[in-house]
Design brief:
Number of strands: 10
Number of helices: 1
Number of domains: 1
Order of helices and strands: EEEEEEEEEHE
Shape: globular
CATH class: Mainly Beta
CATH architecture: Sandwich
Structural class: mainly beta
CATH topology: Immunoglobulin-like
Distance between the termini: 6 Å
Length: 144
């Protein structure tokens, strides 16, 4: 049986400078799908979307609405995650894809260790899968 890891992180809610789609605020593109998943918006260059994602259980889930056509990179800072085991996407139409499986990422997916967490970047072919919306799940390791 897997046991959840308890993490406590406070995120500074930032203001995004998302200019890739000026008519759409980033808050209308991504929202928490679990009560314990917290989002913090981060400044991002043009045609990019960046935010922080923290969770108390080790499983973070966000709902993505259809993304603008000119969006080129989606960046998630994952403060507090100790060893990301997987990143999965499930689309509105039931399609799914494992974007990261603990060792390697899909084409266009990079996961970098950063201080007290990770940075996940999704672009290229992987971003095209997400473009129509769906649910993105990031799973940290479990102790059991």
């Amino acid at each position: 049986m897997r046991t959840s890891i308890t993490m406590s992180w406070l995120l500074a809610m930032g203001v995004a400078s998302f200019t890739g789609c000026a008519a759409t605020a980033p808050q209308t593109l991504v929202q928490s799908a679990l009560a314990d998943t917290h989002l913090g918006w981060q400044p991002a260059p043009e045609h990019q979307l960046a935010f922080s994602l923290a969770t108390a259980t080790g499983i973070a889930r966000v709902e993505l609405r259809p993304l603008p056509d000119d969006l080129q990179t989606l960046t998630l800072d994952l403060p507090g995650m100790q060893k990301v085991e997987g990143v999965q996407w499930v689309g509105e139409n039931g399609q799914s894809a494992m974007l990261y499986s603990g060792v390697d990422g899909a084409d266009g997916v990079t996961l970098q260790r950063r201080g007290h967490g990770y940075r996940l970047q999704i672009s290229g072919a992987a971003l095209e899968r997400l473009r129509g919306g769906g649910v993105l799940t990031v799973i940290d390791y479990y102790r059991g």
